[in-house]
Amino acid sequence: LIFTATLVLISTHTFAAGDAALGQTKAATSIGCLGVNGNSVVPSFPKLAGQSEDYLLKQLQDFKSSARIDGMMAGIVAPLTDADMANLAAYYAAQAVSQGVAKKDANIALGQKIYRGGKKETGVTACIACHGPKGLGIPSAKFPALSAQHAEYIAVQLKAFRQYSINEQTGSDEVVRDNDYEGMMRNVAKGLTTIEIEALAQYVAGLH
Questions:
Q1: Would you place residue 16 in the very low, low, confident or very high pLDDT band (cuts 50, 70, 90)?
Q2: Do the Cβ atoms of 90 and 23 come closer than 8 Å?
Q3: Single pTM value for the model
Q4: Given its phi and psi angles, is residue 118 left (phi above 0), alpha (psi -120 to 50 degrees) or beta?
Q5: What distance in Å separates the CA atoms of residue 126 and residue 100, rounded to the nearest whole number?
Q6: Residue 17: its pLDDT value, please?
Q7: How far apart are CA 59 and CA 55, in angstroms?
Q8: CB 45, CB 33: distance < 8 Å
Q9: Which band of pLDDT confidence, cut at 50, 70 and 90, is reported for residue 201?
Protein backbone atom coordinates (compact mmCIF):
# COMPACT_ATOMS: atom_id res chain seq x y z
CA LEU A 1 0.00 0.00 0.00
CA ILE A 2 2.87 2.35 0.82
CA PHE A 3 4.44 1.54 -2.54
CA THR A 4 1.19 2.33 -4.33
CA ALA A 5 0.73 5.59 -2.45
CA THR A 6 4.27 6.62 -3.34
CA LEU A 7 3.60 5.93 -6.99
CA VAL A 8 0.56 8.16 -6.91
CA LEU A 9 2.47 10.99 -5.27
CA ILE A 10 5.47 10.90 -7.60
CA SER A 11 3.69 10.03 -10.83
CA THR A 12 3.49 12.69 -13.48
CA HIS A 13 0.37 12.71 -15.58
CA THR A 14 -1.97 14.99 -17.49
CA PHE A 15 -5.64 14.76 -16.75
CA ALA A 16 -7.90 14.38 -19.75
CA ALA A 17 -10.01 17.41 -20.56
CA GLY A 18 -12.50 16.19 -23.10
CA ASP A 19 -16.00 17.36 -24.00
CA ALA A 20 -18.51 14.68 -22.97
CA ALA A 21 -21.26 16.02 -25.23
CA LEU A 22 -19.04 15.77 -28.30
CA GLY A 23 -17.90 12.36 -27.09
CA GLN A 24 -21.49 11.14 -26.95
CA THR A 25 -21.94 12.03 -30.61
CA LYS A 26 -18.74 10.24 -31.57
CA ALA A 27 -19.66 7.20 -29.46
CA ALA A 28 -22.93 6.65 -31.36
CA THR A 29 -21.15 4.51 -33.95
CA SER A 30 -19.84 2.15 -31.26
CA ILE A 31 -23.14 1.24 -29.60
CA GLY A 32 -23.18 -2.13 -31.37
CA CYS A 33 -20.03 -3.24 -29.55
CA LEU A 34 -19.85 -1.09 -26.44
CA GLY A 35 -23.57 -0.83 -25.72
CA VAL A 36 -25.70 2.11 -24.69
CA ASN A 37 -23.70 4.49 -22.48
CA GLY A 38 -20.67 2.23 -22.62
CA ASN A 39 -22.29 -0.73 -20.88
CA SER A 40 -21.57 -3.53 -23.32
CA VAL A 41 -23.81 -6.58 -23.22
CA VAL A 42 -21.28 -8.79 -25.00
CA PRO A 43 -18.96 -10.31 -22.33
CA SER A 44 -15.91 -10.18 -24.60
CA PHE A 45 -16.25 -6.40 -24.99
CA PRO A 46 -15.40 -4.23 -21.98
CA LYS A 47 -17.72 -1.94 -20.09
CA LEU A 48 -16.26 1.56 -20.45
CA ALA A 49 -18.94 3.31 -18.41
CA GLY A 50 -17.58 4.84 -15.21
CA GLN A 51 -13.96 4.08 -16.04
CA SER A 52 -11.55 6.89 -15.20
CA GLU A 53 -11.13 9.50 -17.92
CA ASP A 54 -7.34 9.41 -17.90
CA TYR A 55 -7.21 5.64 -18.11
CA LEU A 56 -9.63 5.55 -21.05
CA LEU A 57 -7.63 8.20 -22.88
CA LYS A 58 -4.38 6.31 -22.32
CA GLN A 59 -5.85 3.11 -23.73
CA LEU A 60 -7.15 4.88 -26.83
CA GLN A 61 -3.77 6.49 -27.34
CA ASP A 62 -2.03 3.14 -26.84
CA PHE A 63 -4.26 1.48 -29.43
CA LYS A 64 -3.48 4.28 -31.88
CA SER A 65 0.28 4.08 -31.30
CA SER A 66 0.22 0.25 -31.29
CA ALA A 67 1.52 0.18 -27.72
CA ARG A 68 -1.55 -2.01 -27.15
CA ILE A 69 -2.38 -4.41 -29.96
CA ASP A 70 -5.92 -5.25 -31.05
CA GLY A 71 -6.91 -5.60 -34.68
CA MET A 72 -10.46 -4.34 -34.24
CA MET A 73 -9.48 -1.37 -32.08
CA ALA A 74 -6.66 -0.40 -34.42
CA GLY A 75 -9.20 0.19 -37.17
CA ILE A 76 -11.54 2.09 -34.87
CA VAL A 77 -8.97 4.52 -33.50
CA ALA A 78 -7.17 5.11 -36.82
CA PRO A 79 -9.39 8.06 -37.88
CA LEU A 80 -9.70 9.55 -34.38
CA THR A 81 -8.00 12.84 -33.58
CA ASP A 82 -6.50 13.66 -30.18
CA ALA A 83 -9.62 15.70 -29.43
CA ASP A 84 -11.90 12.82 -30.46
CA MET A 85 -10.16 10.47 -28.06
CA ALA A 86 -10.30 12.98 -25.20
CA ASN A 87 -14.01 13.57 -25.86
CA LEU A 88 -14.80 9.85 -25.93
CA ALA A 89 -12.90 9.33 -22.68
CA ALA A 90 -14.83 12.17 -21.05
CA TYR A 91 -18.18 10.77 -22.23
CA TYR A 92 -17.66 7.20 -21.09
CA ALA A 93 -16.15 8.28 -17.77
CA ALA A 94 -19.31 10.27 -17.02
CA GLN A 95 -21.62 7.27 -17.44
CA ALA A 96 -22.76 4.91 -14.68
CA VAL A 97 -21.57 1.32 -14.97
CA SER A 98 -24.21 -1.39 -14.85
CA GLN A 99 -24.09 -3.95 -12.04
CA GLY A 100 -21.94 -6.99 -12.68
CA VAL A 101 -22.85 -10.54 -11.79
CA ALA A 102 -20.59 -13.50 -11.12
CA LYS A 103 -21.52 -17.01 -12.22
CA LYS A 104 -23.32 -19.03 -9.57
CA ASP A 105 -20.74 -21.81 -9.73
CA ALA A 106 -17.73 -19.48 -9.65
CA ASN A 107 -15.00 -20.02 -7.06
CA ILE A 108 -15.57 -16.67 -5.38
CA ALA A 109 -13.60 -17.64 -2.27
CA LEU A 110 -10.45 -18.23 -4.31
CA GLY A 111 -10.91 -15.01 -6.26
CA GLN A 112 -11.47 -13.02 -3.10
CA LYS A 113 -8.39 -14.54 -1.45
CA ILE A 114 -6.12 -13.46 -4.31
CA TYR A 115 -7.77 -10.06 -4.73
CA ARG A 116 -7.39 -9.20 -1.04
CA GLY A 117 -4.23 -11.06 -0.11
CA GLY A 118 -2.33 -11.88 -3.28
CA LYS A 119 -0.43 -15.14 -3.69
CA LYS A 120 2.72 -15.18 -1.62
CA GLU A 121 4.26 -18.35 -3.07
CA THR A 122 4.53 -16.83 -6.55
CA GLY A 123 4.96 -13.20 -5.54
CA VAL A 124 1.53 -12.05 -6.69
CA THR A 125 0.62 -8.68 -5.16
CA ALA A 126 -2.88 -8.25 -3.76
CA CYS A 127 -5.13 -6.59 -6.33
CA ILE A 128 -6.68 -4.44 -3.62
CA ALA A 129 -3.43 -2.44 -3.37
CA CYS A 130 -3.93 -0.80 -6.77
CA HIS A 131 -7.64 -1.31 -7.47
CA GLY A 132 -9.08 -0.65 -4.03
CA PRO A 133 -11.42 -2.66 -1.76
CA LYS A 134 -14.39 -2.07 -4.05
CA GLY A 135 -12.47 -2.28 -7.32
CA LEU A 136 -12.73 1.43 -8.10
CA GLY A 137 -9.07 1.82 -9.07
CA ILE A 138 -6.84 4.85 -8.56
CA PRO A 139 -7.62 7.39 -11.32
CA SER A 140 -4.65 9.64 -10.48
CA ALA A 141 -2.27 6.75 -11.17
CA LYS A 142 -4.29 5.50 -14.17
CA PHE A 143 -5.06 2.25 -12.34
CA PRO A 144 -8.44 1.19 -13.77
CA ALA A 145 -11.70 0.41 -12.06
CA LEU A 146 -12.50 -3.31 -12.20
CA SER A 147 -15.80 -3.45 -10.33
CA ALA A 148 -18.69 -4.89 -12.38
CA GLN A 149 -16.51 -5.49 -15.45
CA HIS A 150 -17.32 -8.57 -17.54
CA ALA A 151 -15.47 -11.59 -16.13
CA GLU A 152 -14.73 -12.89 -19.61
CA TYR A 153 -13.04 -9.65 -20.61
CA ILE A 154 -10.98 -9.49 -17.40
CA ALA A 155 -9.82 -13.08 -17.83
CA VAL A 156 -8.72 -12.42 -21.42
CA GLN A 157 -6.70 -9.38 -20.34
CA LEU A 158 -5.00 -11.23 -17.47
CA LYS A 159 -4.08 -14.07 -19.81
CA ALA A 160 -2.69 -11.55 -22.32
CA PHE A 161 -0.51 -10.02 -19.60
CA ARG A 162 0.60 -13.53 -18.58
CA GLN A 163 1.40 -14.45 -22.17
CA TYR A 164 4.26 -11.93 -22.12
CA SER A 165 6.21 -14.12 -19.70
CA ILE A 166 5.25 -17.29 -21.57
CA ASN A 167 6.62 -15.81 -24.78
CA GLU A 168 9.86 -14.89 -23.05
CA GLN A 169 10.28 -18.43 -21.73
CA THR A 170 9.22 -20.35 -24.82
CA GLY A 171 10.15 -18.06 -27.71
CA SER A 172 6.50 -17.97 -28.78
CA ASP A 173 5.14 -14.96 -30.61
CA GLU A 174 1.57 -15.09 -29.33
CA VAL A 175 -0.20 -11.75 -28.93
CA VAL A 176 0.45 -10.18 -25.53
CA ARG A 177 -0.58 -7.12 -23.60
CA ASP A 178 2.36 -5.11 -22.28
CA ASN A 179 1.17 -1.52 -21.94
CA ASP A 180 1.01 -1.73 -18.14
CA TYR A 181 3.00 0.65 -15.94
CA GLU A 182 6.49 -0.73 -15.25
CA GLY A 183 5.29 -4.27 -16.00
CA MET A 184 3.13 -4.36 -12.86
CA MET A 185 0.30 -6.40 -14.37
CA ARG A 186 2.68 -8.71 -16.19
CA ASN A 187 4.40 -9.47 -12.88
CA VAL A 188 1.04 -10.23 -11.28
CA ALA A 189 -0.38 -12.35 -14.07
CA LYS A 190 2.69 -14.54 -14.57
CA GLY A 191 2.17 -16.03 -11.11
CA LEU A 192 -1.47 -16.99 -11.67
CA THR A 193 -2.86 -20.26 -12.99
CA THR A 194 -5.77 -20.28 -15.43
CA ILE A 195 -8.08 -21.51 -12.66
CA GLU A 196 -6.99 -18.62 -10.45
CA ILE A 197 -7.45 -16.10 -13.26
CA GLU A 198 -11.00 -17.34 -13.89
CA ALA A 199 -11.84 -17.20 -10.18
CA LEU A 200 -10.39 -13.71 -9.82
CA ALA A 201 -12.27 -12.47 -12.88
CA GLN A 202 -15.57 -13.78 -11.52
CA TYR A 203 -14.96 -12.21 -8.11
CA VAL A 204 -14.25 -8.82 -9.66
CA ALA A 205 -17.34 -9.03 -11.90
CA GLY A 206 -19.55 -9.21 -8.82
CA LEU A 207 -17.58 -6.69 -6.78
CA HIS A 208 -19.58 -3.56 -5.99
A1: low
A2: yes
A3: 0.91
A4: left
A5: 21
A6: 81
A7: 6
A8: yes
A9: very high
